[in-house]
Amino acid sequence: MPVLYVTLTPGAFNAEAKQKLVKALTEAAFVAESVPDLPASRARGLVLLQELPAGQFYSNGEPVDGQIGGVFINYQVPAGVLDGSRKARFARALQESVDVALGSESNCPVITSAVIHEVTEGQWAQNGKILRLPDNVAITKFEHLVSMNEES
To answer: Deepest in the core among 9, 38, 138, 149, taking most CB within 10 A?
Structure first.
């Protein structure tokens, strides 16, 4: 059940590239979390996309609109879903997603950065209740964790 807060720098992606990026990032998170290709499971994959206004991106204290592009992600996931190799897989897929979205059309280098926030057990509230990892497994059906609920 990925929740990705994605911030883009001004003008780095046109509308078509943004759509490609969102699709690729969503799929990258689904693969990292081993979310099955089921409509109910995949409906929980959320991306909140925002683009900074012109003049709001700086490097070394200087405005860099049009000189450097960026994709910055805060990725929220229940603790226990991603191990080290799954996180590394997502990091690689993040960069590949940008490359796919932009193709050869980028007029400047684009950097990527993601912070993976593992939400501690008992700290995720949704639709009026606290969701725990077994609840998330039952709803999302993470393929690598499904046996957790079968053993309970």
So the answer is: 9
